[in-house]
Amino acid sequence: MERDVLDPERWRWGRLWRFGVGFVRLELQSLVFAFAIFAALALTSVIELPIPRYDALLLFALVLTAVLWATGWETTREVGVILVFHVTGLALELFKVHVGSWVYPDEAWSKVAGVPLYAGFMYAAVGSYLVQAWRRFELRATGFRLWPMTVLALAAYANFFTHHWIPDLRWLIAAGFLLELRGTRVHFGVRGRRYRMPLALSFVAIGLALWCAENAATLLGAWRYPDQLVSWTMVHVGKVGSWALLVSLSFVIVAALKHLEGVLDGLPEDVPSAVTRRRAARRAGQRR
């Protein structure tokens, strides 16, 4: 029987421990690519290298991707998704560095318009996590409407560019996401049991984790915001919202692939929300 993660019964110590151990194990497996990139950032920040640091990070990321694909850790389709994330992220980086939102202070041969090519792999790490988590957690979604979510995700991505010239619409777009996702649940398996939670909550949780990772990455010199050039300061907490919006775009990219693979919609034991059930009833009534 499927269980609600937000059910107060889940927070009893014994159940929380059993769930937590299984959940963390799968999370660690899903984060191999991201952990490896962070390990490389940390290592290259304290050792001398025969080539510029950013170039070494690019070579490491390319070798890492090849090794994970060759060993079967990442499938060919998953590597393709990671490439999409790399290109999408690199386009955003080129623009943001051009307008001065942040900088990459070190010199490198692989820099294009001030952006080292390894930067796209930090976005690829997000993509790798999502595709790995989808497979390892047997993740599914109920009440997820791909086309409205795609429109909102594209609007969120466009806003990262357009807010430099027109009013920032991120909060309006975020409200659109909350409205669209009010009945959407994400379902996943841990230690042979199925669980569910609101998809919007998972976006916020991942956004918070990425904000923490961003603080660590800027501390390691992966990139720097203008107020961090003289001495490091914590990234503003408002960036959590930006990361949550970026996660929404990331999720839509992966969801589109999973839709094509036929593994997007919930399993038979996955219980949809009341909103989703009402939508299904209305559609059934219209077909009669």
Textual characterization of the structure:
- With 288 residues, this protein is of the alpha+beta class.
- Helix content is 61%, strand content 7%.
- It has ten helices and six strands, in the order βααααββαβααββααα.
- Strands 1-6-5-4 form a four-stranded mixed sheet. Strands 2-3 form a two-stranded antiparallel ribbon.
- A hairpin with a 2-residue loop joins β2 and β3.
- α5 crosses α9 (239-261), α6 packs antiparallel against α7 and α6 (146-162) packs antiparallel against α9 (239-261).
- The longest helix is centred in the N-terminal third of the chain and has 23 residues, at 76-98.
- The relative contact order is 0.14.
- The mean pLDDT is 90.
Which series of helices and strands comes N to C? EHHHHEEHEHHEEHHH
Q: Report the average pLDDT across residues.
A: 90
Strand content: 5-15%
Low-confidence stretches: none
Report the strand count: 6
Overview in brief:
The protein is of the alpha+beta class. It is built from ten helices and six strands.
Q: What is the fold's blueprint, element by element?
A:
Layout: E1 3-4, H1 13-30, H2 32-44, H3 53-70, H4 76-98, E2 111-112, E3 115-116, H5 120-136, E4 140-142, H6 146-162, H7 170-180, E5 185-190, E6 193-198, H8 199-219, H9 239-261, H10 274-287
Parallel strand pairs: 1-6
Antiparallel strand pairs: 2-3, 4-5, 5-6
Helix pairs in contact: 1-5, 2-3, 2-5, 4-5, 5-9, 6-7, 6-9, 8-9
Features:
288 residues; four-stranded mixed β-sheet; 6 strands
